[in-house]
Design goal:
The protein is an alpha+beta fold. It has 18 helices and 16 strands. It has helices spanning about 30-50, 65-75, 120-125, 125-140, 155-165, 185-195, 200-205, 210-215, 290-300, 345-355, 370-385, 405-410, 415-430, 445-450, 505-510, 555-565, 580-590, 600-615, and strands spanning about 230-240, 245-250, 255-260, 265-270, 275-280, 305-310, 310-315, 335, 360, 475-480, 485, 490-495, 500-505, 515-525, 525-535, 540-545. The longest helix is centred in the first third of the chain and has 18 residues, at about 30-50.
Length: about 675
């Protein structure tokens, strides 16, 4: 019998407070075990309180040595560093790791028995081998330079045997005396090692997604907890996992080609899981203007902006701004950014803090789990609509759902108008989706209930005041400019913006402005003229673009795109021509199949689709099969089919998607 290591006099006093010990459940034990645990509990409490041992307990098999052994089990620390407490009385519970003390003696048939605990005993006796073997395992698991890409059991076993021979282990000693040189013991040891060091090696052994997922579900609450609507807002960009197509006219007819991946920037409220605003981008990467457009939409100051190469269109509703009241201009407390957008911080942080009054939190690199709401919304959008299309790209190139998306997009003829309808419908469906996270309500309805104070909670929304005097709104870009000119050759003061020269009557007459740094407040959707201010904030003049760009109003994106066409000689613009009109004429000619027109690119035809949509906008379809309340207006209905298209067949209710996809080249079963 092993002598107990602690008594009530020698045990640490912080372990003797049995009122805080871990509880125990005896539901699965037999009656005899329950009685024994009850007697031991009473005896331990009396022992800690200083009472003498009760000799009558011997009739139930509980002696003083039994009491001391149970007492030591209860005050022993578990793996988390806390006493086992009353759990130490559970029968069969191992409170200490087994350590072999008996010398190794191979026995049994085939000399394969009698080696239990051999590896642990060997490593305890050979500390140098244990240290170097552990260093080898952690170096390979972390993929340090000079090591393998991952930890392999076979390589670990070979390293262990090499260390044994290097340190003089004889052939008749363990492990060299066994048939497989303790391969099975090393295999189990490596797996236990990976489990023990999981947090250190999860990224290198299982990938970044596994590391991010492992940081969730730890049982510890997040420090960023949203306690009311508009408390914490998350923003991120997402590449939609499907492809669209576009028609290019040729002498043989219209040829359909796949277009680039579509990107959406979504702003969502964490408390309600409500999409506040979004922007759709048909470009490879987002820029600072796109983020400002999404945030401007999220505070209710404008509708979602759909930015094409050279054109911008406002689209549907289904967002909090449709409720009116405080949501026409409503801010929030904290904005969580993706750290991948850190390069836009200089253009975003100052203006967002000043206009919305929120704190901006970029968070650490590669920790998308800090924005769980926006990531969950992206997953729901993909499952609800994007991955259901035949032109889906899947989650990765190895995803079996990915079946030649380029060809599927061409066959389905998924146009940009239909892509916008799909995105609007999916987002509207999300904001009108009843979920348990919103207690059987839908996000937009719950927000209105809080506004109407249905539950008498008295929620006060952070309504933003009008921008202070001299502060540009989020729909306006603040651009640094430099006044240039030349007195000697008579070139009056001017400045350049987006490759074109600007000036105004007051700027042209003030030669003292040469070389001065000024600031322009540019409305991104109308850049033909804008106000120019000095560094001190005084208004200098309203500058207007010079030359052929002064004829028609245009956006910043369309000028960039037309200038790129002119530079690559894909568009001819005369000295007196209006570039915007000339661009539209060339697109119309190409779309009508004019053989004399120059060949146009996929992006040129994208603008044709956009222009048609702007001329005849369609109402966003409501989720099919669910009466989503449209607060302040009647419930919208699904759009009627085009005259040249057959009527869509009747659809069954679906768990995810509540609107038809027949317009996008797919059919419901």
């Amino acid at each position: 019998m092993t002598t107990p290591s602690w008594t009530r006099r020698t045990a640490p006093q912080d372990r003797l407070d049995y009122s805080n010990w871990a509880a125990i459940s005896t539901e699965g034990l037999d009656q005899l075990a329950c009685r024994r645990i009850s007697l031991l509990q009473s005896a331990i409490e009396a022992y800690i309180d200083g009472q003498p041992f009760d000799p009558t307990l011997a009739a139930d098999g509980i002696y003083r040595a039994t009491l001391l052994r149970a007492f030591n089990r209860c005050i022993t620390f578990d793996v988390s560093g806390r006493p086992f407490g009353w759990s130490g009385l559970c029968p069969g519970l191992r409170v200490r790791q087994p350590v072999r003390c008996k010398p190794l003696e191979v026995c049994g048939m085939g000399k394969r028995a009698g080696l239990a605990g051999a590896l642990t005993q060997f490593l305890c006796a050979h500390a140098d081998i244990a240290e170097k073997f552990g260093a080898y395992l952690i170096a390979n698991a972390k993929r340090e330079p000079g090591n393998e890409a991952r930890l392999r059991v076979k390589s670990a076993h070979q390293k262990f045997i090499k260390l044994c021979r290097d340190y003089g282990i004889q052939e008749h000693e363990w492990p060299l005396c066994t048939k497989q040189f303790a391969y099975e013991s090393i295999r189990r040891f490596v797996h236990h090692f990976l489990d023990a060091h999981y947090d250190d090696i999860v990224a290198t052994q299982y990938g970044e997604r596994a590391r991010a997922r492992s940081r969730t579900g730890t049982g510890l609450p997040s420090r960023l907890v949203a306690t009311r609507p508009f408390d914490i807002v998350e923003i991120d960009e997402h590449h939609c996992q499907f492809m669209g197509s576009i028609g290019v006219p040729t002498p043989e007819g219209t040829r359909w080609l796949p277009i680039e991946r579509i990107t959406i920037i979504v702003v969502a409220d964490r408390f309600l899981s409500l999409i506040l605003g979004y922007t759709v981008i048909f470009r490879r990467e987002a820029n600072a203007d796109d983020l400002l457009d999404a945030l401007n939409c999220a505070i209710g100051n404008g509708k979602p902006s759909v930015a094409f190469e050279g054109c911008e269109v406002e689209c549907g509703d289904g967002l909090p701004s449709q409720l009116g009241g405080p949501f026409q201009r409503c801010g929030w407390n904290q904005l969580l950014f993706d750290n991948a957008l850190i390069h836009l911080a200089g253009e975003i942080i100052g203006r967002v803090r000043g206009l919305i009054g929120c704190d901006v939190n970029f968070g650490p690199v590669r920790h998308f789990e800090r924005r769980p709401t926006i990531e969950n919304i992206f997953g729901l959008l993909e499952r609800a609509g994007f991955r259901r299309l035949q032109s889906t790209t899947g989650t990765s190139p190895q995803d079996p759902v990915r079946q030649h998306p380029e060809k599927a997009a061409v066959d389905a003829k998924l146009t940009m108008q239909q892509i916008l309808r799909l995105i609007e419908s999916v987002i509207l469906d999300h904001n009108g989706n009843v979920s348990k996270s919103n207690f059987g309500s839908y996000p937009l309805g719950r927000l209105e209930a809080a506004w109407r104070d249905v539950d008498k909670k008295g929620v006060i929304f952070p309504v933003l005041p009008p921008p202070p005097l001299g502060v540009a709104d989020l729909g306006v870009s603040v651009v640094p400019l430099v006044i240039r000119g030349n007195r000697e050759n008579g070139r009056r003061p001017y400045f350049t913006f987006e490759q074109e020269a600007y000036t105004g009557p007051l700027i042209a007459d003030d030669w003292s402005l040469l070389g001065t740094n000024v600031v322009g407040h540019v409305t991104r959707k109308a850049i033909r003229s804008f106000q120019v201010f000095s560094r001190s904030g005084a208004l200098i003049d309203t500058a207007t673009v010079m030359g052929r760009w002064r004829h028609s109003e245009h956006s910043r994106d369309i000028r960039k795109y037309i200038n790129s066409l002119i530079k690559t000689r894909r568009l001819d613009v005369g000295y007196l021509d209006d570039p915007v009109h000339r661009f539209l004429e060339s697109i119309r000619a190409a779309a009508n199949g004019d053989a004399a027109a120059r060949a146009v690119s996929q992006r040129d035809l994208a603008i044709v689709a956009t222009e048609q949509q702007a001329a005849a906008p369609t109402k966003t379809p409501a989720p099919h099969g669910r009466s989503t309340p449209k607060l302040g207006s009647s419930t919208p209905t699904c759009p009627q089919p085009e005259p040249h298209q057959p009527a869509a067949p009747a659809l069954n209710d679906d768990d995810y998607l509540e609107y038809p996809l027949t317009a996008f080249g797919t059919t419901e079963p």
